Every structure is written in structure tokens, then in C-alpha cells.
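User: Working on a comparison across species. This one is Isopentenyl-diphosphate delta-isomerase from Liquorilactobacillus ghanensis DSM 18630. Can you predict its structure so I can line it up against the others?
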Amino acid sequence: MSLVYIQHSHRKDEHVFLAEKFYQAHTANGLAEIRLIPNNLPEISVTEVDLSTTLAGKKIAVPFFINAMSGGSPATGKLNQRLAAAAAQTKIPMATGSQSIALQFPQAETSFKVVRQTMPQGLVIGNIGANHNLADAQAAVDMLQADLLEIHLNAAQEIVMTEGDRQFYWKDNLQEIVAGLSVPVIVKEVGFGIAPATLRQLRKLGVRNVDLSGHGGTNFAKIENQRRRQKDFALLNNFGLTTAETLLASQSLAADFSFTASGGIRDALDIIKCLILGADNVGISGLFLHTLIKEDVDGLINLIEKLKEQLKSLMALLGCANISQLRQLPYLLSPELLNFKQQLK
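Assistant: Here's the predicted structure for Isopentenyl-diphosphate delta-isomerase from Liquorilactobacillus ghanensis DSM 18630:
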């Protein structure tokens, strides 16, 4: 086993450890600044509510999934197996963490392949960085027999990472992968939010599915700064757009994309707000990882089932039988979010 692989593998373990260390029950994703208006005559039964939606063109039964977080080491392979067991039991999709390490070191493949082995019938989402070409992207898909592939944009994380990349020429790769890959592609941030100007560039590259991944959840600037000897990059701890801001900023481009919302999602009300603001689905990482670590697979299964039931109850309370109807609901913005939305214009 090479020293370089051991170093890369250790970094994967560090990421999970620090993500849990910095986990917060209450987040600054901006969703608390959005207020919903009661519907006092809902005229609906909970049994009428349909939670189904789409994820990159694939029909899914509920509007949330286990988003990217794990894989690349023996320990994170075990985490992936447990996450996949919960996903299989609850019939929700699951994304792996970045497979880049497995493309370089084949011994890391088992930590990702375990996901498909554990959920043979489920919707599995692979993950690589935007520095990879089409051949690498197809290899990542084949490794998992993946139904979809996330391609992450993580320039801010790489900048803070001592051993991170310093060259970010990604557009040609994205265009090639979107045009030639055997499965649909989701382009995602890693917690700093995707701006409207970036969306317009992605549209020209043929991208149609985007995970906006706003600030407020797992903070990779903070995680990578913790790994730096001098801890000298705290200046980026609050960098980027929040989850609420990314959703508001993307609304003018809704006709061109299917949006995933992610970043600090903590409960069913957060999910509802994301759907009202224009997301087709919601990715959850930190909450699910924290629950798995504290309560094991059964605890995560219970949480997922509770979220499903609460979503149905909340939609009935709002008088909405489906997610399309949620999009028609009025809502109120805090002065700060309203100011942000006005400045966008």
C-alpha cells in the first residue's frame, strides 16, 4: 500500500471526523429568514399528498436524498455501507463522496462499490471533481453502475486545502462530460453556493441539472482550514451564498434547469421551504451523517421515515397535494433577504 494512498485515505477520514465535529443543530443557511403564510382552510386530506418529484430527470418517490459525503478509505467504506443500507430500506437515492481517489488508487474502489452492492435496485449517484475528463467520468459511473453522476465545483475548498489544486480550467471538461456521458449529470457546489452568472455559463455548456449547495451546512473552508498547520484561512469561513440566497438568485433561470437545494438542511420545514423557492429536490448530508454516527442505521431509517410523514403533513397544512402546487404559495422574506433579492436586479 503506497504512502500517497494512505495520505489520501487519511484525508477522507479527517473530512468525516471534522464534519461531525463542526456539526450544528441550528444552521445559518438563511431558510429561517423565510416565513410561510398559513392556509386556514386547506381543503385536503393528508392521504391525497403526493411527494414524488424528479432528480435529474429520474422519477423519485420523495423529494430528498442522501447527498455526497463518504468513501475513499476503509472507515468511510463502512459508512457508505451503512448509509446505503438506510437508503435501500427507505427507498431513497444516495450519492457517494468523490470517487477521484478510486480513479487514482484502485484499492479504494471497494469503499464506493459497496453502495451498489448494498442497494442493487436503488438510485445511486456517483461523484467526481470537475478537473476530470469524460473517460474518468465514465469510469466513475461504471464503478458504481451509477444512475447519475455529480460533478463537484470546489475551488474554494481546494484553495484552503494545503495540498489542493491551484488550477481551475473546468469548462471544457464539463461540456465534454455532459455531451458524452452515458447517464445524466448534476453539477454541484460543495457548500459555497452557485451564483446566477455561473448558471448562465453552465447553461451554455449544456448543463441542465444543478445542485446549488449553499453556505450553511458542512463548511469545507472551515474543515480544510482546521487541517492547515497555521489555521490561517478562517477568512473564508463565511464565504459564499447561503442556501436561501442561492434559491432566490436562481429563480430567474428556473426554466433552464432542474435545481437541487442543499446546505444545512435540518428538518422537514427546511425541505418544504426549498421546494417552495424552486428546488425540485433536496440533498441532505450533515444531518444524515450525524444521525448515523449517533443512532446507527436504525436511527437514520427512523429519521428518514419521519421526514416523509412530516412532509405530507406540512403539505396538507399548506393545502398542497403536490410539489407543483407548493411553487404557487406566497411567502415572506426577512429585510436582509429582501434586500439581497432586490440587489440582484
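For your comparison, note: Residues 34 and 111 are 39 Å apart (CA to CA).

User: Helpful, thanks.
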